[in-house]
Amino acid sequence: MLEYLRSIFAERAASFEGSRCAGAEMEDKVRLGMALFLVSLGVLFVAGMVAYLLIRTGSAAAPPLGAVAMPAGLWLSTAILLAAGLTMFNVQRRARQGDIASLRTWLLVTFALSLAFVLVQVPSMSELMVAHRQALVQRFSGIYGLTVALIAIHALHVIGGLIPLTVLAWLAIRGRLGGEHELWVRSCGNYWHFLEGVWVVMFGVFLIVR
Questions:
Q1: How far is CA 206 from CA 38, 39, 68, 195, 200, in A?
Q2: Residue-range definition of the domain harbouring residue 176
Q3: Residue 202: in which H helix or E strand, if any?
Q4: Domain-located, residue 30
């Protein structure tokens, strides 16, 4: 009987150890996948910014430096994205602490701010497109069009990030968000911080070399 109990205990322990190792392996895979994804996106945005700088400063058909106006809405969208970054930081911290109730609240606030960022970007891009058409009439290069393209690419990645954020927000509303979702919450947070950093750099370049 004693040997039987020992064998049962050993099987349970082996099963628990196996599940823990499988969970750790999955977490490592998610981290590696996210890191590779962010690196590839970083290369894309760096290439875009290099192209912008070369055209803006090296093209004879480019408008005079300082002539490219940035819509006021971009300042507002920047403030909104920075606020979303702060709330996402709180989401990640609550996930680490296991404070699910506060996590749900901060997650919903982050979702609302991220959606507001996209909505504010739309009229700003429309304003830039109007300036782009006017610049083409004046026979200037399509620097406005490139600016719109870079902003649109960033906005599309924000929209893409809204998909997992929407799922997490829905789970939060339904009361189904728990500790088992911590890895996905942290991964989503890292993605948002990356987009936040990319936008700050992009907008800074647009302001300095305009």
A1: 22, 22, 9, 16, 10
A2: 36-208
A3: helix 182-208
A4: no
- Quote the CA–CA distance of 93 and 189 in Å, as a whole number: 10
Cα distances (Å, whole numbers) of residue 84 to 109, 117, 145? 8, 9, 27
pTM score > 0.85 for this model? no
Locate 54 and state its tokens. 């070369």
Rg of the chain in Å (alpha carbons): 23
Which residue shows structure tokens 């680490």? 96
The two most distant CA atoms of the chain are separated, in Å, by 93
CA 117 to chain centre: 11
- Asked if 143 contacts 51 with a C-beta cutoff of 8 angstroms, the reply is no
Over the stretch 25-59, which tens digit does the pLDDT of each residue have? Answer: 666 776 777 788 888 888 888 888 888 888 878 77
**Considering the domain boundaries, does residue 4 fall inside one?**
no
Q: Which two tokens stand for residue 151?
A: 């902003």
Comparing C-alpha atoms, which of 55, 19, 38, 58 is closest to residue 197? 38
More confident residue, 205 or 13: 205
Any domain includes 53:
yes
Q: What would the pLDDT profile of 151-197 be if each residue is shown by its tens digit?
A: 888 888 888 888 888 888 888 777 777 667 777 888 888 888 899 99
5 domain residue, yes or no? no
